[in-house]
Design goal:
mainly alpha; binds fe (ii) ion; 7 helices; Four Helix Bundle (Hemerythrin (Met), subunit A)
């Protein structure tokens, strides 16, 4: 058994919370009839982009690593299949909201609620079952391989949005915990350049 403390899931949990926060904001603006704002549209485009990167990185660089570690354990393998299936279920719900935002759709609020419920169930399932499985099966080196992969995928340009997006509206204690999990130069860049630039985007403003 690995030392669970050697795998730090802070960034994973913080990203999940940022997805939940964005859909809460989307639901509120849709219910208020303000979904036409260009800043809402920009918030939605960024949400989709962040979710795509997150799910693609998990599907290609994380779950295959866990799968190799649990290959003789059918129950764990079934859980990994659930993760892929749940990701696939979310895609058509994203498309339905996309369509609803682009044209007139009386049921936009219902579409957003369905997406929110489905993503919420998936994130809760992942946090309850798959993240503990990561902790108990991956070596710190394998986990580092995944985090290196997601950083390469994001690049510095991606990080410049990802970091301030995660801390947007976050509780001060959670903010400190998340930023402490990042390399010190990233924290400085975020404070000096990324966050001020991100704020000017005014994502989700109506
Ligand atoms: Fe995740």
């Amino acid at each position: 058994m690995n030392d669970p403390e050697q795998i730090d899931l802070t960034v994973m949990y913080a990203a999940h919370d940022a997805f939940r926060r964005d859909l809460e904001r989307l639901e509120a603006v849709v219910e208020a009839g303000r979904a036409g704002s260009p800043h809402v549209r920009a918030g939605w485009e960024n949400f989709k982009h962040q979710l795509h990167i997150h799910h693609t990185a998990e599907d290609t660089a994380l779950w295959p690593r866990v799968e190799r570690a649990v290959r003789r354990r059918p129950q764990d393998l079934a859980l990994l299949e659930d993760m892929a299936d749940e990701h696939a279920l979310i895609d058509p719900l994203l498309a339905a909201v996309d369509d609803g935002l682009s044209g007139p759709a009386d049921d936009l609020a219902a579409r957003v609620r369905e997406l929110r419920a489905s993503l919420g169930r998936h994130l809760a399932h992942e946090e309850m079952s798959a993240l503990p499985l990561i902790r108990s099966t991956l070596t710190p080196k394998e986990w580092a391989g995944f985090t290196a992969d997601i950083r390469a995928r994001q690049g510095i340009k991606g990080a410049a949005v990802f970091v301030p997006w995660v801390v947007d509206g976050i509780k001060p204690t959670d903010r400190s915990r998340f930023l402490a999990a990042l390399p010190p130069p990233v924290r400085v860049l975020n404070r000096v350049t990324w966050e001020p630039r991100y704020r000017r985007l005014r994502l989700w403003a109506v």
